[in-house]
Amino acid sequence: xxxxxxxxxxxxxxxxxxxxxxxxRHKKVSFSEIEIDLRPAVRITSFDGWQALELQVFNRSDVxxxxxxxxxxxxxxxxxxxxxxxxxxxxxxxxxxxxxDEWLSMSLAGGLYDAAGRPQGPYSFNLWGTVHYQIRENWAxxxxxxxxxxxxxxxxxxxxxxxxxxxxxxxxxxxxxxxDSLTHASHSKKRPG
Length: 193
Description:
It is built from two helices and ten strands, in the order H-E-E-E-E-E-H-E-E-E-E-E. It has a five-stranded antiparallel beta sheet with strand order 4-3-6-7-8, with helices on one face. It has helices at residues 2-30, 109-115, and strands at residues 38-47, 50-59, 65-78, 89-98, 102-107, 122-135, 138-152, 155-161, 165-170, 176-181.
């Protein structure tokens, strides 16, 4: 009878140890740090002879990311013959999920054309911005690297990345947008809000 009791007790201890091991492993996996790697970029894309200015967001995270919007600010606008008031900013509503290792692409030309005051003829500006996203219940933002953009109406002519130093660009609605400034003294001024 002693041997049977000993075997039952050892069996129960083994089962409890296995359950404790599985519980801790499950708890560690579900509450571990999430690796977030979201990369927004401004690019020219070509299709059927047309060129488009697009915001592309690539999700290199290991979880699905909900992308809510992109807040864009234009500074150092050089334009003539504007048919509307230049607001200097544009909020691109996105409201879409991006699964791991996938990308999302959307046109920026119309929104930036309106933010520049609908110029008639060639115009150029610096573009700054952030993409606001959610992972599970947590909200965060990813900066869009600064670019100098040359356009004519809705057509993009040239996009080049700006070399950067850290500075804060103020949006017109008093929200500060962390960005980068130009290394050239003539372009490193902040635009008043």
